[in-house]
Amino acid sequence: MEYFCSVIQTHPVLNIPTMAHTVLHKAATRGHADHGWLNTWHTFSFAHYHDPERMHFGALRVLNDDTVAPGMGFSTHPHANMEIISIPLEGDLEHRDSMGNTQVIRQGDIQVMSAGSGITHSEKNRNHDRLTRFLQIWVFPNKRDVPPRYDQITLDPAKLRDRFQQILSPSPDDEGVWIHQDAWFHLGRFGPGREATYAVKRPGNGVYAFVIEGEATINGQALERRDGLGLWEVTGLEIKAGNNGADVLLMDVPMHLN
Hints:
Blueprint: E1 2-10, E2 17-25, E3 31-34, E4 38-42, E5 60-68, E6 73-79, E7 83-90, E8 92-97, E9 102-106, E10 109-114, E11 119-125, E12 132-139, E13 149-154, E14 164-169, E15 177-178, E16 184-190, E17 195-199, E18 205-218, E19 221-223, E20 228-232, E21 236-254
Parallel strand pairs: 14-15
Antiparallel strand pairs: 1-2, 2-20, 3-4, 4-5, 5-12, 6-11, 7-10, 7-12, 8-9, 8-11, 10-13, 14-16, 16-21, 17-21, 18-19, 18-20, 18-21
């Protein structure tokens, strides 16, 4: 089940009242599949999970919460015209692609792949004694058939502490990885009761907030582990971590596709 509402709120930075629209996706309402080697939860319609009311949030098309069994993984498969971001949460994920890249991403890394005109790749848990968990995120691009591209970075944990660090943007000259879309991702790790504000980066964008761990209240809405909250026609967010702290991912994306 998902819940829609409209509320009047005040921009936390500019103190300007604004009408906000929200959609709440509780963790247990996500699509789920257990393939043995892969245990996966889908916030939006994906593979055999289809809900016409949960196709995407603006340019945000896929938010999958994947757990891969030891030594297992996704065999070589194709992608085109999609920006694909992977955020490892635990373990080591080995990536191979048709551009010749062979890389391993771990907790603290951010990986991006612009599929563009076409690419094939595989992903595998390179460990034989423990699980690998990661978030797989797809964003619709604002340019089609661009040359495929791969990149990854390692975050500085100190920059995540009680603040939001930018991990993705539309610019190769900005902080974090970049994609072909007017989107910004921020990640923060907050201690118990810590507070933060966030200003939407671009008029017309919405923000999808995902609580990776812990609990948080965002613009008055209480959220638990793996809950998602989408907000649009809003200019800012107020975030307060719960008693156990919170790891929160913010995905600031256009609400209208080109």
